Backbone:
């Protein structure tokens, strides 16, 4: 009897291992099937209108990507091949030079925008208020800005506002990049008129701040404004084109 039990015991162990392996394999297959069914269920349970919208979005995205690829391929072909490659490269360089000139303040700019006129009869509007107005305009998408005021000689003077422009308080008003200006001030801004005007009218914003200091702010929307003040182009002392 003992010899018979010794013979059966190893077989029972091998069967247990085989059964356990089969059960594990079956459990893995069931888990994969359930996960696949759940993933497909996101679309199978969607409404027909949702499926149509998803398909339209995929088609539109595909069309936009194809158009972008075609445009980039055409630009590459113009710049690298054919007899007009030099002309196309020159035209692209000039276009980029104009855009960079607008950002640097060395080129005049026109387009839709707003005129922001700030009066200050009590000489209480500080440079910080005007700086807040400038920051609000920039955040609203201003692409070109100039600030006008009355200079010490009584003439209306405009200063082109760029990234490094500094506004400092002065006894007569403010100093903008070394130019002393007195009220009334006027920002001439190129950008989306509705967005720029909305940024000035935010409750507790620029218009309220000017009013609290005894002044008034008026915003005029226009389909064409001109930022004509230019920054002097200072040649570099050490840098040379490579």
Residues:
């Amino acid at each position: 009897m003992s010899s018979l039990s010794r013979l059966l015991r190893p077989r029972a162990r091998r069967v247990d291992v085989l059964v356990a392996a089969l059960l594990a394999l079956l459990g893995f297959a069931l888990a994969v099937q359930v996960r696949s069914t759940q993933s497909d269920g996101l679309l199978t349970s969607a409404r027909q209108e949702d499926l149509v919208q998803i398909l339209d979005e995929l088609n539109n995205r595909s069309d936009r990507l194809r158009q972008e690829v075609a445009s980039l391929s055409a630009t590459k072909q113009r710049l690298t091949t054919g007899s007009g490659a030099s002309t196309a490269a020159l035209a692209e360089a000039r276009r980029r030079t104009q855009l960079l000139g607008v950002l640097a303040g060395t080129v005049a700019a026109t387009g839709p925008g707003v005129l922001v006129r700030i009066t200050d009869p009590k000489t209480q509007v500080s440079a910080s208020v005007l700086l807040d107005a400038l920051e609000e305009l920039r955040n609203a998408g201003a692409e070109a800005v100039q600030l006008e005021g009355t200079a010490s000689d009584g003439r209306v003077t405009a200063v082109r506002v760029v990234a490094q422009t500094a506004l400092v308080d002065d006894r007569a008003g403010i100093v903008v990049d070394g130019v002393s200006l007195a009220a009334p001030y006027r920002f001439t801004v190129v950008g989306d008129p509705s967005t720029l005007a909305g940024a000035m009218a935010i409750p507790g914003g620029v218009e309220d701040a000017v009013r609290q200091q005894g002044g008034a702010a008026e915003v005029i929307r226009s389909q064409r404004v001109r930022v004509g003040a230019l920054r002097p182009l200072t040649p570099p002392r050490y840098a040379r084109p490579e």
